[in-house]
Amino acid sequence: MPVATARAVSLQGAVGHLIEVQVDVSPGLIRTVLVGRPDASLSEARDRCRMAVTNSGLDKPFAWPATRRVTILLSPSDLPKSGTHFDLAIAVAVLGASDQLPRSSLEGTGFVGELTLEGGLRTVPGVLPMVLTAASHGLRRMFVPEPQAREAALVPGVEILGMRSLAQVVAQLREVPVPEAPAVAAVSASPLLAWRGQDRAAQLDFSDVLGIHDARFAVEVAAAGGHPLQLSGPKGAGKTTLAERIPSIMPDLSYEEALEILAIHSLAGTLGPEAELPRRPPFFAPHHSASRTSLLGGGSGRVRPGEISRAHCGVLFLDEFPLFNADVIEALRQPLESGEVTIARGEETATFPARGLVVLASNPCPCGDFHPAARENRCTCTEVKRREYRRKITGPLADRIDIVRHVLPVQAHELSDPMAEPETSAIVRHRVEEARATQARRFAGRGWRLNSHAPGPDLRAEWPVTEAALALLEAEIYAGRLSRRGGTRVHRLAWTVADLAGVARPDLPEVDTALRLRTGAPLSMAALGNRWIGRAG
Question: What CATH topology corresponds to 4-174?
Fold first, then answer.
């Protein structure tokens, strides 16, 4: 009998591979052989698919070729494969190879779904990236479990058929009336609990932040260019208040960004049946007791993305950062540098995007009462404890933080100033949107979107600062106050400051402001110029 070929998708992190499931039914030693580097969960598909085929069908039940040798090849064979989502493709390929299904009906079609012993379909994680991969390889029709049809339909140009059972899939392929079948259970990650106030972040506004004008400006620069930000200061100074409002000043997600985020959440298995394209940037704030696996990704069995990838194109807020485990702190070096996380485990390597805005917050000491002004300092920590606490943020990690701000408590006169009119999130977001639009035009056709993503060599070659500004930057590097990496990050920061100010090319004021943002030095109103007076206080 000729070979029947169905198509499925294998995922390695955020990278998808089109898999041809080829089945040959021929005389020989009676057995079912599955080859092509399957893992244990995939090897069990032989028994699941055999029982699903046997128990499916109404008037004329399907038959598993029990008197023949069934060879199932998952091609390409050198690629490790795992997961239960291959079940549907294996089952229809066996039916095609045994002449119970027209083999031509499998052309140009992909199959995703786990099978029960009764022939029903079950949901699987990662449907959206699987459909994206199938579409990129020219497939124009996909069969998926019914609850995940809405998720899969977000990919344009692909016909999505949500099915409940193997019998329904076969009827659709045979072009005969589709039989009834029990509904498929929703994704196991569907939320079961809700509480009043869980959407409170959507109600937060920048106008709630009083005083701390330099920190507000630093947050605006970070949001405009995607620069990592560190906020330090005594407890109650407003660090969390600022961080929670950063999403409110970020632009709406583009279609491509929203699809990327949804694909990551699909890989993580956290999408419910009512999943829609997100409109606003995500915000995640894991507790400082979070493990390295939960933050960066990994896990036993299938590798899943962590919180830093789920915050892609949004904000990842790490409060009380020095209290995180040392391995978590040091593991942040790679995503802060490259914007992605690579997890290598045995034969499997998974890479996930992590281009979110990382915001770190810390107290100046363990008790949180240290204040630089002696008369306001109520710290009870010894100097040794303070040094040990600050030393947890190591030099290599600190060198990857673009903006550092020390937030001081709001003064009494700032809380009751009748002349003060704090800007709303809408006003600040408009400036951030304009700055990002400028960056989009500058980097059109490139592989990056924001200033913080631009490679250093490209910046120096195509978007240099002025000669006077470059001399100032080089002087800081040669004096040892900046590393070469730090110089590149100041260069990026200067472009973001220029974009916010509407300047065509960074000059001395923009580079001076970028240096102050980088080092945590007080901002100079002379350097900011008249365009910022009134914005920064």
Answer: Ribosomal Protein S5; domain 2 (3.30.230)
